[in-house]
Amino acid sequence: MEDSTLKRFGISMEGHLVRKFDHLVKQRGYENRSEAIRDLVRDALFQHSWEKDDQIVAGSILLFYDHHKRNLLEELTKVQHEMHDLIMSTTHFHLNHTNCLELIIVKGKAKEIQLLSNKLTSLRGVQYGKFTAAPIENI
Asked: Is the Cβ–Cβ distance between 102 and 91 less than 8 Å?
């Protein structure tokens, strides 16, 4: 049974941390600290649930890589074809002569997409990779 009533609780932290947090609250346009903390808690709970949960999520995998690395493009394509049922779309950007940025839109079980992301970001030549997602159903 879901309890939708608001609960109040106190948080203690160092002054410098509160100042930095207040700056973040203002910068992101929150009306107050509580809204920001709720978003942080939701995100932390969602991130924690990935390894054991079959929750359906939608999101993106961002890859930054050197396309001159030997066999990298073939390996990226191979992994994506192996797990094609999770991939909704891909977009490829040429940043300069050497570097590319690829955005892969995904939907499926969080743990399966995390596996896809891990396979892609661990390939030799991928310099940076990030998986971001949100639950399709509420937490």
From this structure: yes
What confidence tens digit (pLDDT) does each residue in 46-67 have? 666 655 568 888 999 999 999 8
Query: Hunting for tokens 């661990």 — which residue is that?
Result: 122
- Computed from CA positions of residues 74, 76, 79, 80, in that sequence, does the dihedral angle turn out positive or negative? negative
pLDDT at residue 7, rounded to an integer: 87
Adjacent-strand bridge partners of 90: 104
61-107 pLDDT per residue, tens: 999 999 899 999 999 999 999 999 999 999 999 999 999 999 999 99
What are the Cα distances from residue 43, in Å, to 27, 40, 114, 124?
18, 5, 15, 30
> Tokens at residue 69, please?
């690395």
Nearest CA to 111 among 62, 44, 53?
53
Class of domain 56-135: alpha beta
pLDDT value of position 40: 86
